[in-house]
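Batch job 17 of 40 flagged for manual review because the log was empty.
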Amino acid sequence: MANIQSSETFDVCIVGSGAGGGMAAKILTDAGANVIMLEAGAAWDVNDQ
């Protein structure tokens, strides 16, 4: 699995993209916040299609 590093800074980190996480992200981004969303799940290889 690749380890990607970024120096970008976010105002809010939302863990989980379910109904609550999705609404929180929408409301916060509409208000101007810089949001990152983290989601658990199996590793996904973009080259394995």
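Reviewer: the log was empty due to a logging misconfiguration, but the result itself is present. The first strand starts at residue 12 and ends at 15. Unflagging and moving on to job 18.
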